Amino acid sequence: MSPSVCLQEMIRVIRGARTQGEERGVIQRECAAIRAQFRQADNGGRSHNLAKLLYVHMLGYPAHFGQMECVRLIASSKYSEKRIGYLGAMMLLDEKQDASLLITNSIKNDLSHSSQHVQSLALCTLACMGSAEMCRDLAPEIERLLKASNSYIKKKAALCAVHIVRKIPELGEMFTPSAHSLLSEKNHGVLHGAVILITELCERNPDNLKQFRKSVPELVQIMKNLVTSGYSPEHNVAGISDPFLQVRILRLLRILGRNNDAASDAMNDLLAQVATNTDSSKTAGSAVLYETVLTIMDIRSESGLRVLAVNILGRFLLNNDRNIRYISMTSLQKIVQTDHTAVQRHRGTIVDCLKDQDASVKRYAPSQRWHIDTILHVLVTAGGDVRDETVPNLIQLITAASELHCYTVHKLYRALISDIVQQSLVQVACWCIGEYGDLLLKGECEEITPMQVTEDDVLDALETVLQSHMSTPTSRGFALTAIMKLSTRITNNVDRIRSVVSIYGSCIDVELQQRAVEYNALFKKYDHMRAAVLERMPVIDRNSSGQTNGDPSVEPMKEFNQPKPVQGVLIQEPANQVCDLLDLLGDSNPPLLVTNDHTSTAPNSTNSTSSNVQDNLLDLLGGLEPTPAPSVTVFEKGGLSLKLQCDQQTETSTTVTFTASNSTQSDITGFNLQAAVPKSVQLQMKAPSGDLIPAQGCGTVTQTVLLSYTNKANLKMRVRLSYSSQGTACQDMVQIDSFPSPAWS
Amino acid sequence: MRFLLLFNRQGRLRLQKWFIPLSNREKNKIISEMTLTVLARPPKACSFLQWRDLKIVYRRYASLFFCCGLEDQDNELLTLELLQRYVELLDQYFGNVCELDIIFNFDKAYFILDEFIMGGEIQETSRLCLARHMEEADAFQETVDEYEKNPTY
């Protein structure tokens, strides 16, 4: 291959190489040729050779032997050689190389070259890789060029000055006067450079900040001209006139208005104008609006303007473009973190957006965990006034993210123990602890630092919510239900739960009282169903908007469909009747007064009227307690007895509950039931309440079985029991041919 | 802006511009990490991502990925517009630009970039001005070359 092959040809050959090895071979040959060429004296193909070397360098091969060639080419008088020489300098040299110092002189000369193109090369290279020394050397030249009459040079000199100020902030003073005068330029390129220079000066030196605050009116005027100007083909991007310049000006205004009332006032109108008039259908407009929002939130803007800014972010959340949605979410996160007060004042708007956009945010949030974290964060800082719908929405989101249950419950638990003021956070936390308490107690979770949580700790936390005067009735309801759910998820403190639940059976709050009474019943008469009732909930289906799910903690009530609602509904009626009674008695007494007397369960009460009401209430409640369904003992051996009870029977289905009890001196462990049914019957076994039957009848194990069939006559079941009693493993079989009918069929 | 990289789907680098001083090793490390990260992104993903302390903005144009590393105060949406502008400038210069143009004329691609961005900041916001400057520079180069080839003395 001829050593003077042109650049294009060499590229073609390299690209034609079929293997990495072949390519390496070609390149090695080429580099050798180039090196030889460099060593030769003056020859016409120098720029081509360097260009070839630069290509090879971009492919990742070493090219340091080209550095001196760059220096030589830069010093050449030919423009084409200078051009490639400077390009090479920018690619191969950086301020750490010694060779870079050698080009300082060339740059200095070229800065005063007669041709603006050569000057431009020098300026560009200095701004790209100028070291601190070079900058110090050449700063006066740059300052001179800032005053040049040529806008082409002025704009480049301005950016060069920016680089110098970044390298040596003290030199900033040199450029301050020129920077100021550049603001009156008409040329957008120069203006743009000037704004960047001023931004840099202000960021480095607070004195500059004071000085340039005086320029705020001027900047405002420039912005106004841009925003209101007509179509200009030169600068127009998607209907916005020079969005690049607009954004830089807004950024500068942000720095000038920060912590300064006067400056902020001066820009208020402009910001409002930009915020309302900018068309955000394309990225250009959105970019300008985004910068405007950042500026508004950072300066001392008036509240109307801040609302406007938050509204813009809210609109961004609705945008079809996912990049814009990403921007709005990161901005909202920042705002929540840094500007607490703004969030508090505009929480409604922000949370509305989060709430409405749950679906799209979820679809597009970087991860479910990020999504949950973000909403948690908002709840923690601004959750005091969050809409009610956010709580069920967040709960639904959490149930859907099943792999994050452990992480979520840990996070929420920690949030709960640190602060219980934010009610929505409290509610979500209580719900999660109730639902996933077992995961919390396990202690480890991958994504969060481990923390040992005992059952007592958890119950303490929930009881604190229950007892705190800061908790709303809804939150207390959540807490009570959560405590109840934990009764099947913990092992040691069930008695504590039992006592809490029974205490609240006489609570002032009617809602809590009702719950406590029902849960009490669940412990006493319906203990066999407790495990099934309090099972883990399935993923909640998303409701259509507008349909409020109501209090999600009510759902466990809906879970156990069969026997309870009958009782539940009937209990609610007396409450209504109480109200009616109260109306009859004259509604000057608000219901609250009457319920105060409910603290004493004894019928004896000083106030006769209210005691009548109270009596009535209790009587109604008393009358409603259903007689327990008859249970039949199907198996009895060596102290272990298995009872069967049918709780609901329709033509095609029965719910059967097995209760196992132990009258021996020692516990029965590993208790397990297996059931078989004829082919015409379908069987669904629910989770048992446990596998340990305490000795001497101190407790039972219950298990619910759902049977569905076409013909009741065919209903038979064979049950196998396996367990360990007094050290021996046992297995027994029992055939059940008839099922007792339930209480009220 | 800290850097601008152009690479194709196979991870071949077509252009690299650095606005901060870094050693070759550091540059190579960033290049390989950027390539891996961006190429691994699903097609419908957002154009922005967080990497170390930088905001990365990338966009795919035909077979090339344009990837920038931004500092915290830089406006990501505006950077998308910046990339769009650069591609438009290349298109105007080369006429229906494609990856091959940038491979075989990488020096011109750099010259255009150097007219558009300097020290990590935009230096010219007008398309027309920029196109004109490139024309003038090329014309200047040709005249000088011509002159050199045929000196009158």
TrEMBL record, chain A:
<dbReference type="GO" id="GO:0030121">
    <property type="term" value="C:AP-1 adaptor complex"/>
</dbReference>
<protein>
    <recommendedName>
        <fullName>AP-1 complex subunit gamma</fullName>
    </recommendedName>
</protein>
<keyword id="KW-0968">Cytoplasmic vesicle</keyword>
<dbReference type="InterPro" id="IPR017107">
    <property type="entry name" value="AP1_complex_gsu"/>
</dbReference>
<dbReference type="InterPro" id="IPR016024">
    <property type="entry name" value="ARM-type_fold"/>
</dbReference>
<dbReference type="GO" id="GO:0006886">
    <property type="term" value="P:intracellular protein transport"/>
</dbReference>
<dbReference type="InterPro" id="IPR011989">
    <property type="entry name" value="ARM-like"/>
</dbReference>
<dbReference type="Pfam" id="PF01602">
    <property type="entry name" value="Adaptin_N"/>
</dbReference>
<dbReference type="GO" id="GO:0016192">
    <property type="term" value="P:vesicle-mediated transport"/>
</dbReference>
<keyword id="KW-0333">Golgi apparatus</keyword>
<keyword id="KW-0653">Protein transport</keyword>
<keyword id="KW-0813">Transport</keyword>
<keyword id="KW-0472">Membrane</keyword>
<dbReference type="InterPro" id="IPR008152">
    <property type="entry name" value="Clathrin_a/b/g-adaptin_app_Ig"/>
</dbReference>
<dbReference type="Pfam" id="PF02883">
    <property type="entry name" value="Alpha_adaptinC2"/>
</dbReference>
<comment type="similarity">
    <text>Belongs to the adaptor complexes large subunit family.</text>
</comment>
<feature type="domain" description="GAE">
    <location>
        <begin position="627"/>
        <end position="740"/>
    </location>
</feature>
<dbReference type="InterPro" id="IPR002553">
    <property type="entry name" value="Clathrin/coatomer_adapt-like_N"/>
</dbReference>
<dbReference type="InterPro" id="IPR013041">
    <property type="entry name" value="Clathrin_app_Ig-like_sf"/>
</dbReference>
<dbReference type="InterPro" id="IPR050840">
    <property type="entry name" value="Adaptor_Complx_Large_Subunit"/>
</dbReference>
<dbReference type="InterPro" id="IPR008153">
    <property type="entry name" value="GAE_dom"/>
</dbReference>
From TrEMBL, chain B:
<protein>
    <recommendedName>
        <fullName>AP complex subunit sigma</fullName>
    </recommendedName>
</protein>
<keyword id="KW-0653">Protein transport</keyword>
<dbReference type="GO" id="GO:0005905">
    <property type="term" value="C:clathrin-coated pit"/>
</dbReference>
<keyword id="KW-0168">Coated pit</keyword>
<keyword id="KW-0333">Golgi apparatus</keyword>
<comment type="subunit">
    <text>Adaptor protein complex 1 (AP-1) is a heterotetramer composed of two large adaptins (gamma-type subunit AP1G1 and beta-type subunit AP1B1), a medium adaptin (mu-type subunit AP1M1 or AP1M2) and a small adaptin (sigma-type subunit AP1S1 or AP1S2 or AP1S3).</text>
</comment>
<keyword id="KW-0813">Transport</keyword>
<comment type="similarity">
    <text>Belongs to the adaptor complexes small subunit family.</text>
</comment>
<keyword id="KW-0968">Cytoplasmic vesicle</keyword>
<dbReference type="GO" id="GO:0030121">
    <property type="term" value="C:AP-1 adaptor complex"/>
</dbReference>
<dbReference type="Pfam" id="PF01217">
    <property type="entry name" value="Clat_adaptor_s"/>
</dbReference>
<keyword id="KW-0472">Membrane</keyword>
<dbReference type="InterPro" id="IPR022775">
    <property type="entry name" value="AP_mu_sigma_su"/>
</dbReference>
<dbReference type="GO" id="GO:0035615">
    <property type="term" value="F:clathrin adaptor activity"/>
</dbReference>
<feature type="domain" description="AP complex mu/sigma subunit">
    <location>
        <begin position="1"/>
        <end position="138"/>
    </location>
</feature>
<dbReference type="InterPro" id="IPR011012">
    <property type="entry name" value="Longin-like_dom_sf"/>
</dbReference>
<dbReference type="InterPro" id="IPR016635">
    <property type="entry name" value="AP_complex_ssu"/>
</dbReference>
<dbReference type="InterPro" id="IPR044733">
    <property type="entry name" value="AP1_sigma"/>
</dbReference>
<dbReference type="GO" id="GO:0006886">
    <property type="term" value="P:intracellular protein transport"/>
</dbReference>
